[in-house]
What does this fold into?
Amino acid sequence: MIFEKILSIHPYSLDKEEKEKLLTGRLLKITKLHQEKCLEYARILESIHFDADKVNSYTDLPFLPVRLFKELELRSVSKEDVVKTMTSSGTTGQAVSKIYLDRTTSSNQQKTMVKIVSEFTGSCRMPMIIIDCPSVVKNRTMFSARGAGILGFSIFGSTKIYAFDDDMKLDVEGVKKFLDKFQGQKILLFGFTFMIWQHFYKELLRLEKDGITFDLSNGILIHGGGWKKLVSEMIDPEEFHKKLKDVCGLENIHDYYGMVEQTGCIYMECEYGHLHASIFSDVITRRPIDFSECDIGERGIIQVVSTIPESYPGHSLLTEDEGTILGIDNCPCGRKGKYFKINGRLKNAEIRGCSDTYADKFKS
Amino acid sequence: MQTNLNRDVLRKAIYLTGSVDLAARLPFISAKVPFNDMVVDFLNDVSKVLMGNRAAKTYSDVITFAFWIRKSSILKLKERFEKKDEAFYLGKGIAFHIAPSNVPVNFAYSLVAGLLNGNANIVRVSSKDFAQVEIIVDAVNCVLEQHTEMKPYIILVRYERDKDINDLFSSIADIRVVWGGNNTIEELRKSPLPPRSVEITFSDRYSLAVINADSYLEIEDKERVAEDFYNDTFFSDQNACTSPRIVIWTGNQIEKAKKIFWDTEHKLVKKKYAFQAIQGVNKLTKSCLIAVVEPGVKVEEHPDNLIVRVIVPEINDCLMDYQENSGYFYEYDCKDIQEIRELCNDKRCQTIAYIGDSKVVLPLIEAGVKGIDRVVPMGKTMDFDLVWDGYNLPALLTRTIVLA
It folds into this structure.
């Protein structure tokens, strides 16, 4: 199965059996491709006695822990063919993932993203407000996850404006003017969940008290990046939606789940609050004790598979997120495929032993 | 010697035992003769309190400690370590101990080593809330009320990152005992010691197991061996410096022995070990990394993530840069003990837990390897002794006075 063929299929149209067949064929093919092209990957497969003939389903394929991309440079193309290197947004001092893209993989990421997102926004481009600051995307050869997300979604914008200046201050005048200019039109808003809450919502709330209000009832907001920081502020998705509606009338809101290691294959949240897997990718939840596949409704570690990566062996990854598959092919929104929710990150282990936790305190 | 201690700094610590006043008086306290009756009786009473404490019974490490400080046990140590030559021995003076944060009872062993050898002690105790720490501290405080003469010799403190306090205690220390990893040692070395003072550092180490397959197969009680190995590894999340990271197999019936050994161990671990979800991911990550850097390694098939074994085709010096804990083992089939020389010639190599004959590693030691401080039967890796990590503590904690 070549990728172009998958692109020609409606992203949420295949049922379980059809999708399994498609994914198994494509993923087995790129497993073999990486085995051939990436020495490190081949060694890992060798160490676990991988035998492609024994693979009956894509769920049988080996998965690499996502952290491996922080420790190793994994590439299935020559250095010269790399057109983009994406990095995860680790906090200062942490190792970052490095993902190497060639022209094909990079372009397939973009095409996939368009196919998926259009399902939620329509295929027309819209005036777009990026709820972030312009400096995030300055360096075009090294893309951070934030920058990559913004650039990825920018294809959906006809005219674009950044909502913040580089000090993360809301550009009240600019946004006001932008909204006036495109009054009555559907507006796309994009940003990271925490930024939206911290620097956008809170600022709108403050301005409201001064009598300055914004009407975003025509807006469609897509946001991602996770809820970790909001959990500590006791904000859940329901609260997030309600508060945004209250402050600016914004109602059409979609969270998404995705990661820099599998850019393009994002999992969009539907009208019923469920994250959906498209035909380009899938999520498998696994039991921590033995990595066996969880049942529907059972919480487990999330494995993600993607049909896109050809330039790096990241087509089957074990994340450090926990999630729950809620159902397959039967979401009330009508989209086929698995739908799921994220439960959060795996906890760091509490480990005994003669370790250095005393000195670790000095570093933070 | 500095005698006027800055009380503002002293007040920054929390005193579990002792007080700012007692800490300020430390420079004026006399050293004692090693194994003197005052200390032996005191420890015996602490042991009694611990043995009689119902809460203590649920902590095997507390009970082991309580046994170790009984009079009969201490007198055996005295027998072994008391010098019978013409010289006169006295404690060095003040011992400043930094206990590791993740081994609850370790501070107590360090304290006892200091006390038995005639020193006054300041011990920085782990800031984690371990029940074991509370139980032992309570017992010590309770017994001190009957042995008030011991009060000046035991100061137990807690404090977070604080160079001022490290500086102050270091400035009066005759000996500094630093447990914990290399980072802690580096941090403490920023606080100078007086010119004549010495330091004992317990740095990051690794340990191994050497099992003679034939000897193992002869042992009747395989469950007992599984318990022993569990205590050496899983009990401390395989993260103590004494926990074997690699199993070296010798003898003829290696495959047969491996199968029984790991099956029995797995049953026990499944029953006893509190598995944490991230541990499986960590082990997978490490096994992938070693597969990349060491071509030819084989990950043994495992029914679950409790025990992950990676068979290495050869021993080299970078293997121990890829350690993982909580049930992650390298394994090597060894025909000639010289094959593991690289592992043992590393200064980080500490304990060898063996099944079979301890003399199996003697050729390496005789050949002058830079590692290996202890060769002990499997199950005994955590047993504390006054000779530890290659250091003869009684010799280091005392002063030898020549009376000619």
Summary: The CA atoms of residues 370 and 388 of chain B lie 16 Å apart.
